[in-house]
Each structure stands twice: as C-alpha cells, then as structure tokens.
Write a structure and sequence with these properties.
- Strands 1-2-5-4-3 form a 5-stranded mixed sheet.
- The longest helix is centred in the middle third of the chain and has 16 residues.
- The protein has a single domain, classed as Beta Polymerase, domain 2 (2-Layer Sandwich), CATH 3.30.460.10.
- It is globular and about 35 Å long.
- A hairpin with a 6-residue loop joins strand 3 and strand 4.
- By secondary structure, the chain is α+β, with helices and mostly antiparallel strands.
Amino acid sequence: MDAEKNALKAVDLALEKKAYDLQLLNVQELSTLTDYLLIASGRSDRQVQAIAESIRLGFKAQGLFPLATEGVDEGHWALLDYGDFMVHIFQPSVRSFYDLEGLWSEAPLVPLADTGVA
C-alpha cells in the first residue's frame, strides 16, 4: 500500500472509535520526516487511547507496525509514527495548544469526503 492509502485507512480506523475533527495533511513537499499527517481529536483519555489502539490493531492485522509511539498511556495526546504517515490524536485543549494545523498551514488538505468525513 502507498502512504496516502494507509493514511486514509487510518482515518477509517479512527472513525470506528468516534474520532472527530479529522484532518489529513499532505506534507510530502514540506517534510523529510513523513508524507502525511493525520490529526484527530478524542473527547477523553480513554477515547484517545481507544482511537490509537484501533489504528494500531488495524495495521497490525496487515503486518504493519509503528516505528514509534508516544503518549498513548497518558491519553491526552498520542502519536503513532508509521514512517510515511503519522497519526496525532489529541484531546481538544492539547490540540489547540500544539496547533499542528497552524504549524503545517502550507500543507494541502487531503479530501476526506470519500471516507464520510467532510
């Protein structure tokens, strides 16, 4: 699978656990670290953890494992780094504080209409 397809699969896996306010940024032209950043929100520690676990297990079933994970145990913010795409899941106040959308404001958004996300 290519990076965009995997990132879109991560969107679907996050939605299974009721993630909201999802944005998928194409950072290929702006970053040497990754090609896509998925930013999503969860309403509580447990929901952030559940979203991260849904994504991790969904890719594990395909034999794809994160290169690194951060913050999952605490649940305020979680990072899953799959190399060519990264997933950030935040509680709203933490998302606002880090403002990744602002930091990557030059990155084009990948349309999520096909996944049911407007």
